[in-house]
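User: I've been trying to design a sequence by hand for this structure and keep getting stuck. Would you show me what you'd pick, starting by listing the structure so we're on the same page?

Assistant: Good idea, let's start from the same input. This is the structure you sent:
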């Protein structure tokens, strides 16, 4: 039994070596047929060719409306309000009766002044006749010179008294007219601060009512003096052309963002800059026939700056920022290699950026696929017109093309 066991050991080792050799041979064959690694695919990007075009540049400024004319109604004589002759919140005309103050005492004063004037005027002929007679008699020495001087002085005194009472009559007439409180301007009148029977005093601090003329209406906005300097510099360098004929037209946006149906006109720019805010005021006159604008409303005025004949507008998704926050863009050069450009942005116009420097006509701006690229790498370029592999891509290209062609 021991002899048989020792004879089987060489056979077992031989079989183990055969199996091991087979495994090694199989591994070597597999390595020999292993496929080579495929090259990395070239990133695909969508580009937009830069084409300068004329653009009207505007500035949107916040402001508030104010009445074109404002008149605070105050009495000019003391008295009791007999009657109010208007409806609160209605439109009134210039000269329309608003309040009637009790005229009785003023009518009596006027009548008294007229009567006194008539009395003085009635005495004047007698005094004048006596003075004329004394003049003739004085020439013949029939009366003393003193009597003639007294008669002449009496006549002058009577004439002066007549003029005095004429002034008194006029004053009484004016005060009587002041009992009729009328509208000095046409417009819409607000609420009344007094009722019938109230006692009012001349030139009292509290107004009886306020009339506001709201057609047209003012829109007062503020603009930074820095923006004014930038505008003047762009006009001087020729980057902007000023349209003198239509440059004063201003569009108005209401509080909810809807455009006001009528354009206003820039009336003037203030000549003083507020040192606290560094801004100055602009006043715009806006037609308001339907009283859609009310005094005190918040609006935004779109003021035209000028025309940029060679403006470069790019979609906002084509502009990114580096870690320092500086705007950059990626373009594709003639060799289909990605290049990075530093940009200077002027402003946002709708969903586009107005580029002051960094891009030029003919540049191919990358607007899609920027996540898979880096500077100085080769890419496969697809333009907007050819980027229609699917409904979603086609809609994206159409939106981007619309933004570039007319999305101001």
């Amino acid at each position: 039994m021991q002899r048989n066991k020792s004879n089987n050991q060489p056979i077992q080792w031989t079989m183990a070596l055969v199996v091991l050799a087979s495994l090694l041979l199989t591994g070597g064959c597999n390595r020999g047929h292993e496929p080579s690694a495929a090259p990395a695919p070239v990133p695909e990007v969508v580009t937009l060719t830069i084409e300068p075009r004329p653009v009207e540049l505007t500035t949107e400024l916040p402001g508030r409306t104010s009445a074109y004319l404002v008149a605070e109604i105050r009495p000019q004589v003391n008295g009791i309000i007999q009657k109010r002759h208007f409806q609160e919140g209605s439109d009134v005309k210039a000269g329309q009766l608003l309040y009637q103050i009790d005229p009785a005492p003023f009518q009596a004063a006027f009548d008294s002044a007229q009567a006194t004037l008539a009395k003085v005027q009635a005495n004047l002929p007698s005094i004048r006749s006596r003075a004329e007679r004394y003049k003739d008699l004085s020439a013949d020495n029939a009366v003393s010179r003193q009597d003639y001087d007294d008669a002449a002085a009496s006549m002058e005194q009577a004439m002066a008294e007549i003029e005095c009472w004429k002034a008194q009559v006029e004053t009484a007439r004016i005060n009587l007219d002041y009992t009729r409180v009328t509208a000095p301007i046409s417009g819409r009148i607000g609420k009344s601060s007094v009722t019938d029977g109230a006692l009012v005093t001349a030139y009292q601090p509290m107004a009886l009512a306020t009339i506001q003329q709201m057609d047209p209406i003012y829109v007062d906005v503020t603009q930074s003096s820095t923006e004014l300097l930038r505008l003047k510099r762009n006009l001087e360098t020729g980057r902007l052309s000023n349209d003198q004929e239509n440059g004063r037209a201003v569009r108005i946006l209401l509080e909810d963002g809807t455009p006001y149906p009528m354009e206003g006109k820039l009336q003037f720019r203030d000549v003083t800059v507020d040192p606290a805010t560094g801004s100055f005021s602009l006043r715009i006159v806006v037609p308001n026939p339907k009283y859609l604008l009310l005094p005190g409303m918040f609006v935004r005025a779109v003021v035209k700056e000028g025309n940029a004949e060679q403006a470069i507008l790019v979609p906002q998704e084509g502009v990114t920022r580096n870690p320092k926050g500086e705007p950059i863009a990626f373009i594709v050069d003639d060799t289909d290699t990605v290049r990075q450009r530093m940009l200077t942005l002027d402003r946002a116009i709708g969903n586009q950026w107005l580029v002051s420097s960094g891009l030029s006509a003919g540049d191919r701006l990358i607007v899609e696929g920027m996540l898979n690229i880096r500077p100085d790498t080769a890419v496969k370029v697809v333009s907007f017109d050819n980027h229609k592999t699917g409904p979603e891509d086609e809609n994206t290209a159409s939106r981007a093309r619309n933004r570039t062609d007319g999305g101001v």
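That's my pick for every position. To get oriented when you compare it with your attempt: Residues 1-6, 28-33, 388-408 have pLDDT under 50 and may be disordered. Residues 45-55+309-406 form a domain with the conserved putative lor/sdh protein from methanococcus maripaludis s2 fold fold (CATH 2.40.420.20).
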